[in-house]
Amino acid sequence: MPTFETLPRFTTDLQHLTPTQRRRFRRVVQDAFVPDLRTGRQSRPGLRIKGVRRTPGVYELTWDGNGRATWSYGPARSAGEQHIIWRRIGGHDILNAP
């Protein structure tokens, strides 16, 4: 199971989402993002994961129409498991400061 941590800005952003948006994000992470990481396969097309151009090493995950989350890989905390650092979450505007 991949491990994760959240940056303070992500936590603040998350509090500004509606309960429905938070549930949608968690469902996408649990049902698609984590299983793809676990199997090591390329992420499914519906997730639309891509690198953030202005910030090397940071990736964008589209979890809803305008729902975006940015993340990066961190040092593994468990042998053989990916560690994800959640950076920002919200609308497309978060990409101005990912």
> Rounded to an integer, what's the Rg over CA atoms?
13 Å
As a percent range, the share of helical residues equals 25-40%
Structural class: alpha+beta
Number of helices, where a helix is a run of at least 4 consecutive DSSP H or I residues: 2
Distance between the amino and carboxyl termini: 25 Å
Elements, N to C (H/E): EHHEEEE
Extended strand count: 5
Percent of residues in β-strands: 25-35%
Average pLDDT rating: 89
Strand order of the largest sheet: 1-5-4-3-2
Low-confidence stretches: none
Give a structural overview.
By secondary structure, this protein is α+β, with helices and mostly antiparallel strands. Helices cover 30% and strands 26% of the residues. The protein is globular and about 35 Å long. The two termini are 25 Å apart.
